[in-house]
Amino acid sequence: MKDLARIPVKELVRSDTIKSKFNDVLGKRAPQFISSIVNIVNSNQDLKNVDQTSVISSALVAASLDLPINQSFGYMYLVPYSGKAQPQMGYKGYIQLAQRSGQYKRLNAISVSKEKVPDKMVIFIPDYRMEEAETQIDMYQDHIEDVKAGRVEPTRCGKCDYCKSTAKLGKIVSMDDLID
Ligand SMILES: [Zn+2]
Fold this sequence. Notes:
The protein is of the alpha+beta class and 180 residues long.
């Protein structure tokens, strides 16, 4: 018998045993979910190299929590870690589960600043802010993917670490322009 761990996910998902596991959890939505597993592995070489059964079992965790697995949605990530895929919940996954439970009053984030001596603060995030942020992410998603893939040049802000580290010496700036 072939070692299951080495059979590519796209073949594993054709097996009746695995199909029925997803059918049990997701019913009619199983085929779509299964095709997104195959897509995720196709677009991530590291996931092709890990134990393929661990990809399936991580995906089953997401399925049983009824969280979408599309990696750009931020609900659940499949993370390759020492030869295996691990399910890792994104912040949207936590929010989704909290909302479904109906047990929460409101969601707070604890923010820690990235300074030498970090500052801490508990921040309440109103729903409309969350929705705004999600709309923004959706809006910029394609552009971000293009920049990551090198299809589009990033817009330079001139202030961040990336811009500073890749800055080229160009025009000469007068000291008068730097001091008000
Ligand atoms: Zn920048």
